[in-house]
Amino acid sequence: MKRKPAVTSRDVALRAGVSQSAVSRCFSPEASISEKTRLKVLNAARELGYRPNSIARSLITRSSRTIALVLSSLDNMFYPLAVEKASQRFQAEGYHLLLFVVPESDDFPGIMDSILQSQVDGILMLSALLTSSLARECVDAGVPVVLLNRSVEFEGISQVYSDNYHGGYWAGSYLAMSGHRDIAFVAGVETSSTSRRRHEGFVDGLAAHGLVPYAVVHGNYDFDKARHETLALFARGQGPDAIFAASDHMAVAVLETLRHELRRRVPEEVAVIGFDDTPVSAWPSYALTTVRQPIDEMIEAATSLLIEQIRHGAEAADSQVLPVTPVLRHTTRRME
Hints:
The chain is α/β, with parallel strands linked by helices. The protein contains 12 helices and 12 strands. The strands form 3 sheets. It has a 6-stranded parallel β-sheet, sandwiched between helices. Helix 11 links the parallel strand 8 and strand 9 (271-273).
């Protein structure tokens, strides 16, 4: 079948009786145009079947209206939720989205080259590893970057994350005050700033009650790895009487392993605390005690920062730390 010739903005302008620049302004989200003219253009475009060419417009405006969302995994239940909320926010502002899933073991510098070559207007990185050298590359390229749920020792990058230290501190302190003495930590990826801060807070929370961790193992935010490490903890003998996991995703793996493979009662024999408060943690089958990250506020802060920097630039990067909230459910005992 022969393809019909494309309808152009000039065709729409002739049908609507307006200038071609008026048609262009009508389909530019930030352009000023009267309501009367806008309706004329939209009616003409509908009649002719016109669709604006975003690629051509980007060549004129030097803006692709595209944002890269970069993350290292979709397994962790926190991140699909974050991607959904960020996508809704950006789409409401008229931006297209490119999703890059880059496992931390992969060639991240090479992927970053591909992202920068895509001519995106900005980058939102959701817990992906960004080294200082890559951060410098982004800044030198003039591409705004905001890190969500990670931090990096570099002044030119805006960052939004929750108070991981005090979340970890609460978990260690609460378990100690609940009468537990052999308390293990299932950490995330060793290089992750979020996991490190949760670990530091956990250690200090135990120390405030004269305790040290029973063990620290790395589940790498992975379900199977967390399961394996849980089995290993109990292969050493009696095992811990409480476990704090650095994410709900790993905490669910710990719960499943305790209940169905090790036949341990939760929380009577082993208490469990997670981190994130993803929707699954409230399911009756889990009823997980956890530390809630304010995901709506984090997404709003991160997306607003990025949009502001895209539109107006920024004299200095901004870092925002948002408070966390303990959520008590049924995987921990009440304090004695």
